[in-house]
Amino acid sequence: MKSLLRTVSLTFAIALMGCGPGVDIDAIAAAATAKVGQPAPAFTLTDSTGKTRSLADFAGKTVVLEWTNHGCPFVRKHYGAGNMQAQQRDATADGVVWLSVNSSAPGQQGHVDGAGAEAVRSEARAAQTAYLLDPDGTVGRAYGAMTTPHMYVVDPTGVLRYAGAIDSIASPDTDDIAQATQYVPQALAELAAGQPVSVAVTRPYGCSVKYAN
After folding, report:
1. What CA dihedral angle connects 159, 160, 161 and 167, to 10 degrees?
2. Is the N or the C terminus of the chain less surrounded, counting Cβ atoms within 10 Å?
3. pLDDT digits (tens, 9 = 90+) for 64-83
4. Structural domain tally of the chain?
């Protein structure tokens, strides 16, 4: 039964990856300028408190980028279980900058303004450094963000070192979290130890980013 449920869950995950009216996921991936092993695309966005945040502000620090949409069941999986918040707390305690990015367009699932984002953060007891608003999808498209969640790790020199899924089990089932490899903590630990990231690219899973049509 567990095997059957996992098969159904995986099928569900893959189906959701392609959803989103008018959005060509393959085109977004092909047009992305973010490439692992190369400098991460520069950006400037407004956060949920109205403050301007640029990737350049965090030069010399490791940065995690987390694409998010609170209406997505896969995002709810990791926040509902406390997995995302635990990773945020552990990372920021080690001096890592954690930026959640919302690229949902106005009128699409998950779109919020600053006040809405602050409410989402408060309800989830999230511990990211900042929640960034990307309603026109410019930054999301530059990074090729396809799903929520979709995770990236940028090293202190500004080079992208990880891009892909949050973990190794593409499922909406919270019971799978404990058995999965958590790719971001793994990459952060390897970078902190001066080692290359052993798993640098994975296929993301979740709901499609709700870009404008």
Report:
1. 160
2. N
3. 999 999 999 999 999 999 99
4. 1
